[in-house]
Amino acid sequence: MSPIALADRVERMRESPSVAAAQRVRELRAAGREILDLTIGEPDFDTPDHVKSAAVAAMDAGLTKYTAVNGIPVLREAILSRMAERTGLTFTDSEITIGGGAKQLIFLALMATVDAGDEVIVPAPYWVSYPDMVVVHGGTPVVVDCGESDRFLLTPEKLEAAITPATKWVILNSPANPTGAVYSAAELAALAEVLARHPHVNVLCDEIYDEIVFDEAPCPALLSVAPELRDRLYVVNGVSKSYAMTGWRLGYGIGHPRLAAAINKLQSQSSSCPSSISQAAAAVALSGDQEFVAESVASYRARRGIVFDLLSEVDGLTPALPQGTFYMFVGCAGLLGKRTPAGDILKTDQDVVLYLLDHAAVATIAGSAYGAPSYLRISFATSEEVLRAAAAGIAKAVAALA
Ligand code: PLP
Q1: Is it true that the peptide bond before 131 is cis, omega within 30 degrees of 0?
Q2: CATH topology of domain 54-287
Q3: Which segments within 281-382 are labelled E, that is strand?
Q4: pLDDT of residue 96
Q5: Whose CA is nearest to atom 11 of ligand 1?
Q6: How far does the centroid of ligand 1 lie from the alpha carbon of residue 18, in Å?
Q7: Separation of 129 CA from ligand 1 center, angstroms?
Protein backbone atom coordinates (compact mmCIF):
# COMPACT_ATOMS: atom_id res chain seq x y z
CA MET A 1 0.00 0.00 0.00
CA SER A 2 1.45 3.36 -0.95
CA PRO A 3 1.45 6.08 1.71
CA ILE A 4 -0.79 9.12 1.41
CA ALA A 5 0.87 11.68 -0.87
CA LEU A 6 1.53 14.87 1.02
CA ALA A 7 0.70 18.34 -0.23
CA ASP A 8 3.58 20.25 -1.81
CA ARG A 9 3.30 23.00 0.80
CA VAL A 10 4.09 20.52 3.57
CA GLU A 11 6.96 18.97 1.66
CA ARG A 12 8.45 22.48 1.33
CA MET A 13 8.48 22.97 5.11
CA ARG A 14 11.24 21.80 7.44
CA GLU A 15 10.62 20.42 10.91
CA SER A 16 11.31 23.03 13.59
CA PRO A 17 15.02 22.60 14.51
CA SER A 18 14.36 23.52 18.14
CA VAL A 19 11.66 20.86 18.41
CA ALA A 20 14.07 18.42 16.76
CA ALA A 21 16.83 19.36 19.24
CA ALA A 22 14.51 18.78 22.20
CA GLN A 23 13.58 15.40 20.72
CA ARG A 24 17.29 14.46 20.42
CA VAL A 25 17.84 15.30 24.09
CA ARG A 26 14.84 13.13 25.05
CA GLU A 27 16.24 10.23 22.99
CA LEU A 28 19.69 10.48 24.59
CA ARG A 29 18.16 10.61 28.06
CA ALA A 30 15.97 7.62 27.24
CA ALA A 31 19.19 5.80 26.28
CA GLY A 32 20.50 6.49 29.78
CA ARG A 33 22.77 9.48 29.14
CA GLU A 34 22.74 12.43 31.50
CA ILE A 35 22.48 15.56 29.39
CA LEU A 36 22.87 19.18 30.48
CA ASP A 37 20.17 20.70 28.32
CA LEU A 38 20.72 24.25 27.11
CA THR A 39 18.21 23.98 24.26
CA ILE A 40 15.14 24.75 26.32
CA GLY A 41 12.80 27.33 24.78
CA GLU A 42 10.57 27.81 27.78
CA PRO A 43 10.79 29.01 31.39
CA ASP A 44 11.92 26.37 33.87
CA PHE A 45 9.50 27.80 36.44
CA ASP A 46 6.06 26.41 37.08
CA THR A 47 2.96 28.45 36.19
CA PRO A 48 2.14 30.72 39.17
CA ASP A 49 -0.35 29.23 41.64
CA HIS A 50 -2.92 32.00 41.35
CA VAL A 51 -3.10 31.34 37.61
CA LYS A 52 -3.58 27.60 38.12
CA SER A 53 -6.29 28.33 40.68
CA ALA A 54 -8.07 30.52 38.15
CA ALA A 55 -8.16 27.58 35.75
CA VAL A 56 -9.61 25.29 38.41
CA ALA A 57 -12.21 27.92 39.34
CA ALA A 58 -13.14 28.29 35.66
CA MET A 59 -13.71 24.56 35.33
CA ASP A 60 -15.74 24.47 38.54
CA ALA A 61 -17.86 27.33 37.23
CA GLY A 62 -18.61 25.38 34.06
CA LEU A 63 -16.44 27.42 31.71
CA THR A 64 -15.82 24.27 29.73
CA LYS A 65 -17.57 25.06 26.47
CA TYR A 66 -16.68 26.75 23.17
CA THR A 67 -16.17 30.48 23.50
CA ALA A 68 -16.44 33.38 21.06
CA VAL A 69 -13.68 33.12 18.48
CA ASN A 70 -12.03 36.27 19.84
CA GLY A 71 -12.21 35.05 23.41
CA ILE A 72 -14.11 35.36 26.67
CA PRO A 73 -14.92 38.93 27.77
CA VAL A 74 -12.53 38.96 30.77
CA LEU A 75 -9.64 37.92 28.57
CA ARG A 76 -10.49 40.54 25.97
CA GLU A 77 -10.61 43.19 28.70
CA ALA A 78 -7.28 42.04 30.09
CA ILE A 79 -5.70 42.19 26.61
CA LEU A 80 -7.16 45.61 25.86
CA SER A 81 -5.87 47.12 29.10
CA ARG A 82 -2.49 45.41 28.73
CA MET A 83 -2.12 46.83 25.21
CA ALA A 84 -3.31 50.28 26.29
CA GLU A 85 -0.80 50.27 29.15
CA ARG A 86 2.00 49.16 26.85
CA THR A 87 1.35 51.55 23.96
CA GLY A 88 -0.67 54.47 25.33
CA LEU A 89 -3.27 53.76 22.62
CA THR A 90 -6.79 52.44 22.97
CA PHE A 91 -8.09 49.39 21.18
CA THR A 92 -11.44 47.70 20.67
CA ASP A 93 -12.69 44.12 20.61
CA SER A 94 -12.75 44.17 16.81
CA GLU A 95 -8.95 44.34 16.77
CA ILE A 96 -8.41 41.30 19.00
CA THR A 97 -7.39 37.84 17.91
CA ILE A 98 -6.59 34.99 20.26
CA GLY A 99 -5.12 31.65 19.42
CA GLY A 100 -3.36 28.55 20.64
CA GLY A 101 -0.14 30.48 21.22
CA ALA A 102 1.57 33.38 19.48
CA LYS A 103 2.90 30.79 17.06
CA GLN A 104 -0.54 29.88 15.77
CA LEU A 105 -1.48 33.54 15.35
CA ILE A 106 1.64 34.28 13.30
CA PHE A 107 0.81 31.27 11.15
CA LEU A 108 -2.78 32.44 10.68
CA ALA A 109 -1.77 36.06 9.99
CA LEU A 110 0.50 34.85 7.20
CA MET A 111 -2.16 32.47 5.93
CA ALA A 112 -4.63 35.36 5.85
CA THR A 113 -2.38 37.67 3.87
CA VAL A 114 0.38 35.92 1.93
CA ASP A 115 -0.26 34.89 -1.66
CA ALA A 116 2.15 33.12 -4.00
CA GLY A 117 4.88 35.56 -4.98
CA ASP A 118 4.53 37.77 -1.90
CA GLU A 119 7.76 38.51 -0.06
CA VAL A 120 8.26 38.62 3.68
CA ILE A 121 11.40 40.24 5.04
CA VAL A 122 12.91 38.11 7.78
CA PRO A 123 15.93 39.61 9.57
CA ALA A 124 18.51 36.95 10.49
CA PRO A 125 19.25 35.62 13.04
CA TYR A 126 15.54 34.75 13.07
CA TRP A 127 13.20 32.62 15.10
CA VAL A 128 13.28 29.26 13.31
CA SER A 129 9.60 29.19 12.41
CA TYR A 130 9.26 32.42 10.43
CA PRO A 131 10.75 31.35 7.07
CA ASP A 132 8.91 28.03 7.01
CA MET A 133 5.62 29.68 7.90
CA VAL A 134 6.09 32.02 4.93
CA VAL A 135 7.01 29.15 2.62
CA VAL A 136 4.02 27.00 3.56
CA HIS A 137 1.70 29.77 2.38
CA GLY A 138 3.51 30.10 -0.95
CA GLY A 139 5.39 33.27 -0.02
CA THR A 140 9.09 33.97 -0.33
CA PRO A 141 11.11 34.71 2.80
CA VAL A 142 13.63 37.45 2.07
CA VAL A 143 16.31 36.79 4.66
CA VAL A 144 18.37 39.85 5.56
CA ASP A 145 21.63 39.17 7.41
CA CYS A 146 21.96 41.36 10.47
CA GLY A 147 25.42 40.84 11.87
CA GLU A 148 26.84 41.23 15.31
CA SER A 149 28.16 44.71 14.44
CA ASP A 150 24.48 45.79 14.15
CA ARG A 151 23.69 43.95 17.39
CA PHE A 152 21.90 41.40 15.16
CA LEU A 153 19.17 43.97 14.44
CA LEU A 154 17.69 45.24 11.17
CA THR A 155 19.02 48.66 10.16
CA PRO A 156 16.99 51.24 8.19
CA GLU A 157 19.43 50.89 5.27
CA LYS A 158 19.03 47.12 5.11
CA LEU A 159 15.26 47.41 5.39
CA GLU A 160 15.13 49.95 2.58
CA ALA A 161 17.32 47.74 0.37
CA ALA A 162 15.18 44.64 0.99
CA ILE A 163 11.81 46.22 0.15
CA THR A 164 10.39 45.48 -3.31
CA PRO A 165 6.91 46.00 -4.77
CA ALA A 166 6.19 42.39 -3.70
CA THR A 167 6.99 42.95 -0.01
CA LYS A 168 3.99 42.12 2.15
CA TRP A 169 5.47 42.02 5.61
CA VAL A 170 8.61 42.62 7.57
CA ILE A 171 8.87 40.60 10.74
CA LEU A 172 10.36 42.34 13.79
CA ASN A 173 10.98 40.28 16.89
CA SER A 174 12.04 42.26 19.94
CA PRO A 175 13.37 41.04 22.32
CA ALA A 176 14.65 38.55 19.80
CA ASN A 177 15.00 34.81 19.83
CA PRO A 178 17.83 33.67 19.44
CA THR A 179 19.99 36.72 20.26
CA GLY A 180 18.12 38.49 23.07
CA ALA A 181 18.65 41.77 21.18
CA VAL A 182 16.14 44.57 21.79
CA TYR A 183 15.37 47.49 19.44
CA SER A 184 15.64 50.87 21.17
CA ALA A 185 12.90 53.44 20.61
CA ALA A 186 15.30 55.41 18.37
CA GLU A 187 16.06 52.31 16.27
CA LEU A 188 12.34 51.61 15.87
CA ALA A 189 11.72 55.24 14.89
CA ALA A 190 14.41 54.97 12.20
CA LEU A 191 12.75 51.83 10.79
CA ALA A 192 9.37 53.59 10.93
CA GLU A 193 10.75 56.39 8.77
CA VAL A 194 11.59 53.87 6.05
CA LEU A 195 8.20 52.20 6.42
CA ALA A 196 6.47 55.56 6.00
CA ARG A 197 7.88 55.69 2.47
CA HIS A 198 6.52 52.22 1.62
CA PRO A 199 2.84 52.09 2.51
CA HIS A 200 2.39 48.58 1.06
CA VAL A 201 4.70 47.05 3.70
CA ASN A 202 3.11 45.71 6.89
CA VAL A 203 4.93 44.86 10.10
CA LEU A 204 4.47 41.76 12.16
CA CYS A 205 5.74 42.65 15.64
CA ASP A 206 6.45 39.51 17.63
CA GLU A 207 6.62 40.77 21.22
CA ILE A 208 6.35 37.43 23.00
CA TYR A 209 9.41 38.24 25.19
CA ASP A 210 8.48 41.87 25.92
CA GLU A 211 8.42 41.38 29.69
CA ILE A 212 11.73 39.54 29.86
CA VAL A 213 14.14 42.47 29.56
CA PHE A 214 17.20 43.36 31.59
CA ASP A 215 17.95 47.01 30.86
CA GLU A 216 15.17 49.22 29.64
CA ALA A 217 11.74 48.12 30.89
CA PRO A 218 9.25 48.03 29.39
CA CYS A 219 10.85 47.16 26.09
CA PRO A 220 10.02 49.77 23.39
CA ALA A 221 7.04 48.99 21.14
CA LEU A 222 6.86 50.05 17.48
CA LEU A 223 3.18 50.79 18.02
CA SER A 224 3.95 53.51 20.58
CA VAL A 225 6.98 54.84 18.73
CA ALA A 226 5.09 55.12 15.41
CA PRO A 227 1.33 55.06 16.10
CA GLU A 228 0.75 56.36 12.56
CA LEU A 229 1.68 52.85 11.33
CA ARG A 230 -1.09 51.32 13.42
CA ASP A 231 -3.22 50.09 10.50
CA ARG A 232 -0.25 48.19 9.07
CA LEU A 233 0.89 46.47 12.25
CA TYR A 234 0.01 43.10 13.68
CA VAL A 235 1.33 42.81 17.21
CA VAL A 236 1.58 39.32 18.62
CA ASN A 237 2.10 38.39 22.24
CA GLY A 238 1.01 35.71 24.69
CA VAL A 239 1.37 34.25 28.13
CA SER A 240 3.82 31.43 27.34
CA LYS A 241 7.10 33.09 28.23
CA SER A 242 6.23 35.84 30.74
CA TYR A 243 4.00 33.63 32.88
CA ALA A 244 5.60 30.22 32.34
CA MET A 245 2.48 28.99 30.52
CA THR A 246 3.90 27.36 27.39
CA GLY A 247 1.71 24.28 27.75
CA TRP A 248 -1.51 26.28 28.14
CA ARG A 249 -1.25 27.37 24.49
CA LEU A 250 -2.66 30.86 24.63
CA GLY A 251 -1.52 33.84 22.61
CA TYR A 252 -3.09 37.05 21.40
CA GLY A 253 -2.65 39.54 18.62
CA ILE A 254 -3.87 43.04 17.89
CA GLY A 255 -4.35 44.29 14.36
CA HIS A 256 -6.58 46.22 12.01
CA PRO A 257 -10.20 44.98 12.24
CA ARG A 258 -10.03 43.69 8.66
CA LEU A 259 -6.97 41.56 9.43
CA ALA A 260 -8.38 40.51 12.81
CA ALA A 261 -11.65 39.41 11.14
CA ALA A 262 -9.70 37.36 8.57
CA ILE A 263 -7.63 35.65 11.26
CA ASN A 264 -10.76 35.02 13.31
CA LYS A 265 -12.45 33.51 10.25
CA LEU A 266 -9.52 31.11 9.82
CA GLN A 267 -9.58 30.34 13.53
CA SER A 268 -13.33 29.70 13.44
CA GLN A 269 -12.91 27.23 10.59
CA SER A 270 -9.91 25.44 12.08
CA SER A 271 -10.15 25.26 15.87
CA SER A 272 -13.21 27.43 16.73
CA CYS A 273 -11.38 28.96 19.68
CA PRO A 274 -8.51 28.20 22.06
CA SER A 275 -9.22 26.35 25.28
CA SER A 276 -11.79 28.13 27.45
CA ILE A 277 -9.86 27.11 30.57
CA SER A 278 -6.57 28.51 29.28
CA GLN A 279 -8.36 31.73 28.39
CA ALA A 280 -9.61 32.13 31.97
CA ALA A 281 -6.12 31.43 33.31
CA ALA A 282 -4.53 33.88 30.85
CA ALA A 283 -6.96 36.62 31.87
CA VAL A 284 -5.78 36.28 35.46
CA ALA A 285 -2.12 36.06 34.42
CA LEU A 286 -2.40 39.33 32.48
CA SER A 287 -4.50 41.28 34.96
CA GLY A 288 -3.50 39.74 38.32
CA ASP A 289 -0.44 39.97 40.55
CA GLN A 290 2.69 40.57 38.44
CA GLU A 291 5.27 39.60 41.06
CA PHE A 292 6.06 36.35 39.27
CA VAL A 293 7.27 38.29 36.23
CA ALA A 294 9.61 40.49 38.27
CA GLU A 295 10.97 37.50 40.19
CA SER A 296 11.58 35.34 37.14
CA VAL A 297 13.27 38.21 35.29
CA ALA A 298 15.55 38.79 38.29
CA SER A 299 16.46 35.13 38.17
CA TYR A 300 17.14 35.19 34.41
CA ARG A 301 19.29 38.28 34.90
CA ALA A 302 21.45 36.51 37.49
CA ARG A 303 21.80 33.44 35.29
CA ARG A 304 22.67 35.58 32.28
CA GLY A 305 25.55 37.09 34.26
CA ILE A 306 26.86 33.69 35.33
CA VAL A 307 26.79 32.14 31.86
CA PHE A 308 28.16 35.23 30.16
CA ASP A 309 31.13 35.44 32.56
CA LEU A 310 31.91 31.73 32.37
CA LEU A 311 31.68 31.44 28.59
CA SER A 312 33.62 34.68 28.04
CA GLU A 313 36.59 32.91 29.61
CA VAL A 314 36.51 30.07 27.06
CA ASP A 315 39.04 30.62 24.28
CA GLY A 316 37.29 30.51 20.92
CA LEU A 317 33.79 31.36 22.22
CA THR A 318 32.37 34.89 22.04
CA PRO A 319 29.06 35.27 23.85
CA ALA A 320 26.89 38.31 23.05
CA LEU A 321 25.21 39.77 26.14
CA PRO A 322 21.44 39.57 25.60
CA GLN A 323 19.23 42.52 26.62
CA GLY A 324 16.17 40.32 26.94
CA THR A 325 14.80 36.74 26.62
CA PHE A 326 16.51 33.77 28.24
CA TYR A 327 18.80 33.02 25.31
CA MET A 328 22.41 33.85 24.59
CA PHE A 329 23.96 33.75 21.13
CA VAL A 330 27.52 32.57 21.38
CA GLY A 331 29.99 32.97 18.54
CA CYS A 332 31.94 29.76 17.88
CA ALA A 333 33.92 30.79 14.78
CA GLY A 334 37.08 30.50 16.90
CA LEU A 335 36.54 26.74 17.22
CA LEU A 336 36.10 26.04 13.52
CA GLY A 337 39.08 24.33 11.96
CA LYS A 338 40.17 22.78 15.28
CA ARG A 339 40.74 19.07 15.70
CA THR A 340 38.84 16.92 18.22
CA PRO A 341 40.65 14.25 20.33
CA ALA A 342 39.14 11.68 17.90
CA GLY A 343 40.90 13.45 15.02
CA ASP A 344 37.85 15.06 13.39
CA ILE A 345 37.98 18.67 12.23
CA LEU A 346 35.15 20.94 13.42
CA LYS A 347 33.95 22.46 10.16
CA THR A 348 30.56 23.93 11.04
CA ASP A 349 28.56 25.11 14.05
CA GLN A 350 26.62 21.85 13.79
CA ASP A 351 29.91 19.95 14.23
CA VAL A 352 30.52 22.02 17.38
CA VAL A 353 27.03 21.17 18.68
CA LEU A 354 27.64 17.45 18.14
CA TYR A 355 31.10 17.64 19.71
CA LEU A 356 29.73 19.36 22.84
CA LEU A 357 26.94 16.82 23.04
CA ASP A 358 29.35 13.89 22.80
CA HIS A 359 32.23 15.22 24.89
CA ALA A 360 30.54 17.45 27.44
CA ALA A 361 26.99 16.04 27.42
CA VAL A 362 25.83 19.60 26.85
CA ALA A 363 23.01 20.20 24.36
CA THR A 364 22.96 23.47 22.41
CA ILE A 365 21.45 24.53 19.07
CA ALA A 366 23.51 25.52 16.02
CA GLY A 367 23.21 29.14 14.89
CA SER A 368 22.67 27.95 11.32
CA ALA A 369 19.18 26.83 12.37
CA TYR A 370 18.50 30.55 12.96
CA GLY A 371 20.07 31.67 9.69
CA ALA A 372 23.35 32.63 11.39
CA PRO A 373 26.13 30.05 11.01
CA SER A 374 29.14 30.03 13.35
CA TYR A 375 27.06 30.60 16.48
CA LEU A 376 25.45 28.47 19.16
CA ARG A 377 22.19 29.33 20.88
CA ILE A 378 22.12 28.47 24.52
CA SER A 379 19.16 28.88 26.83
CA PHE A 380 19.65 29.95 30.42
CA ALA A 381 16.12 29.00 31.43
CA THR A 382 17.60 26.36 33.67
CA SER A 383 19.15 26.18 37.14
CA GLU A 384 22.41 27.90 38.06
CA GLU A 385 23.76 24.47 38.94
CA VAL A 386 23.10 23.13 35.43
CA LEU A 387 24.50 26.31 33.89
CA ARG A 388 27.73 26.13 35.90
CA ALA A 389 28.17 22.42 35.16
CA ALA A 390 27.46 23.00 31.45
CA ALA A 391 29.91 25.90 31.22
CA ALA A 392 32.59 23.82 32.97
CA GLY A 393 31.92 20.92 30.59
CA ILE A 394 32.12 23.20 27.57
CA ALA A 395 35.39 24.75 28.81
CA LYS A 396 36.92 21.31 29.30
CA ALA A 397 35.76 20.02 25.91
CA VAL A 398 37.06 23.14 24.17
CA ALA A 399 40.42 22.83 25.98
CA ALA A 400 40.74 19.31 24.55
CA LEU A 401 40.67 20.65 20.98
CA ALA A 402 43.89 21.09 19.07
N1 PLP B 1 7.77 33.87 18.87
C2 PLP B 1 9.03 33.61 19.28
C3 PLP B 1 10.12 34.53 18.88
C4 PLP B 1 9.30 32.48 20.06
O5 PLP B 1 10.56 32.23 20.46
C6 PLP B 1 8.24 31.61 20.41
C7 PLP B 1 8.48 30.37 21.17
O8 PLP B 1 9.57 29.85 21.23
C9 PLP B 1 6.95 31.93 19.97
C10 PLP B 1 6.75 33.06 19.20
C11 PLP B 1 5.78 31.05 20.27
O12 PLP B 1 5.09 31.43 21.41
P13 PLP B 1 3.77 30.68 21.86
O14 PLP B 1 4.14 29.70 22.91
O15 PLP B 1 2.88 31.77 22.40
O16 PLP B 1 3.17 30.03 20.66
Answers
A1: no
A2: Aspartate Aminotransferase; domain 2 (3.40.640)
A3: 318-320, 327-331, 362-363, 365-366, 375-379
A4: 97
A5: 103
A6: 11
A7: 9
Ligand 1 within 6 A of CB of 379: no
d(CA 169, CA 112) in angstroms, rounded, equals: 12
The per-residue pLDDT for 12 is 85
Q: How far is the CA of 103 from the centre of ligand 1 (A)?
A: 5
Average pLDDT of adjacent 10-residue blocks, the chain of 402 residues: 86 76 83 92 96 98 97 98 96 97 98 97 97 96 96 98 98 98 97 98 98 89 97 98 98 98 98 97 98 97 98 98 98 98 95 93 95 97 97 98 96
| Sequence ranges of the domains in the chain | 8-46+292-399, 54-287
From 127, 209, 379, give the residue whose CB has the most ligand 1 atoms within 8 Å, as the site to mutate: 127
Which CATH number is associated with domain 8-46+292-399? 3.90.1150.10
**Helices marked H in 99-180 — which ranges?**
102-113, 129-136, 156-162
Distance (Å) of CA 226 to CA 83, 88, 230, 232, 366: 15, 11, 8, 11, 35
